[in-house]
Amino acid sequence: MSEGTNMTEDKNNNLSAEQPIRFVPTPDELAVLVKHWVNKAFDDEYFIFWGQCFGSSDLQDIHHDWKRVNDIAEVLGDEATHTAVEEAFQQAAQDFDRNHWIVFRYGTSEEGEAYREAGGQCFEEFPDGVADRLASQVVERVFHEGSAEQQMSLLKTELKRYSTKLHRLKSGRRHVIEIFGIDFPAEVKPLVLSIGIDDPEPSPQCNTFFKSLTLEQGKAILAALDETAQRGEGALKELVAEPEHFVNALGLNCLTAEPDGLVRFSILPFKTATLSNSCVVILPVVHYLNANPVNGRYDKNADGSATPVEWEIRHLGLSRASVGEIENLLGQDLTPFNVDFVMSSDGTSFGRQFHRINKKARWKQSPELIAAVEKAAIEASNVFETKVVGKPGVTIFEDFRGVDPEHWKIMEVVAFLNEPLKESS
């Protein structure tokens, strides 16, 4: 390399060093910085609260943390900064012990002192139940005496905690409902509606956004979740359980499709039930045992004869979304009992797919088969009714159409309108 080339490179390097680096962060990037420094402040403040000892350097660190937040706020603006700080609060709450966080974040100085005294350094000396009791007293005081802003902050923190737990208990893809910007599995919706809140999105095949909830309604939702949680982890798990869970819990022969598998069935016109504490419908079906497991069809034998049907009576658990999917597949049919369906699955309730495979139910191909299926279905229906009658939250219908009577009324009107006009004589 020549001397002239070296001089040119040195000159370019000097020019680059003299030019200021210009970087203008976006509001979203500034919000991330706010959350970083808020979390740093939390960690430093919580260390003092938890360890119950500190030095001047700890106080200097906390002062520096909040100064950085305030410096960024001058660029980002008060409203966006407040939103970022509140989001950081909610997220940080999930990383700390619930009782410790509530007293640390919302307790008065007297409540904090009583909590530290009862728990000792690092909170290792709490007698059984004391931490719960002291934290519950803080929650009760805030919800009765705190400002609206403080109450909403605590409410969102507690709802976010339940949201995180319920999503962990729920496997696979799912529809959701949104409460104060916090999403829950859609299976929580019946609990929300049970306290008298109007449904802004009746369709079970859509996500639901509760946009106009009041603080008091939010507190009622939290109270309902608390009541469920007090019955144990199993009650929370049941709140978001797959439909098959409820069918199996009743000791019924549940129809399921293996992951990436397929089953063929027909809905039977016998007793059907809904569970008010979930989005589950349980209905009787005839399962075609020897249908082709790949495509659900019945292939003719080599001599051209039809393959005899092998079948059994089972019960199918459906989400409300799946009920709507099946109704859509029926089109303008006035009954769901005359067709065959296939169900495939990716291993989750939300991942189940339904298709109509035949316009005529195969079990109705001969009088002998009809008689045999109906006899077995009546016996299964009697057993089913015995298992569910009297159980809290269970509603029994004569058949599947009772689950969504409005749909069938509309179908009757459509059929009437589509009838050709008869000429008068």
Structural class: alpha+beta
Bulk shape: elongated
Cα-based radius of gyration, to the nearest Å? 31 Å
Q: Helix share of residues?
A: 40-55%
Number of strand elements: 10
Oligomeric form: single chain
N-to-C order of helices and strands: HHHHHHHHEEHEHHHEEEEHEEHEH
Please state the average pLDDT score: 87
Q: Segments where pLDDT lies below 50 for 5+ residues?
A: 1-7
What's the story with the biggest beta sheet?
A: 7 strands, antiparallel
Distance between the termini: 108 Å
Q: Helical region count?
A: 15
Strand content: 5-15%
Describe this structure in a few short sentences:
This protein is α+β, with helices and mostly antiparallel strands and 425 residues long.
Describe the structure.
- The chain is α+β, with helices and mostly antiparallel strands and 425 residues long.
- The chain is 51% helix and 13% strand.
- It has 15 helices and 10 strands.
- The protein has helices spanning 3-18, 27-51, 56-76, 78-93, 98-106, 109-119, 130-145, 148-169, 189-193, 215-230, 233-239, 243-249, 320-330, 367-388, 405-418; strands at 176-179, 182-185, 208-210, 262-267, 272-275, 280-288, 311-319, 340-344, 353-358, 394-397.
- A hairpin with a 4-residue loop joins β5 (272-275) and β6 (280-288).
- The chain is elongated, with a radius of gyration of 31 Å.
- Mean pLDDT is 87; it is low at 1-7.
